[in-house]
Write a structure and sequence with these properties.
mainly alpha
Length: 71
């Protein structure tokens, strides 16, 4: 967990550290547990669209526009 992406998993790591401080050790016991924790973590979701993704994902208005084709 120490080498995990802090942007993606920072809140998870902070939560684990805070729980440990309170006497509630939720750290995984082995590498498989750490892997499963990271893979299944539902953390921070960035609501801004990804500029690298050209697919808008919103198709509800598809077909309602005008297209001009030039020969």
């Amino acid at each position: 967990l120490k080498g995990a992406d802090r942007i993606r998993y920072g809140k998870l790591v902070n939560d684990l550290e805070n729980q440990y401080t309170r006497g509630n050790n939720q750290y995984p016991k082995d590498i498989t547990g750490a892997y499963n924790l990271l893979v299944n973590y539902k953390g921070y979701s960035n609501s801004k669209p990804d500029p690298k993704n050209n697919d808008k994902g919103n198709r509800e208005n598809e077909g309602n526009g005008v297209v001009f084709v030039q020969k």
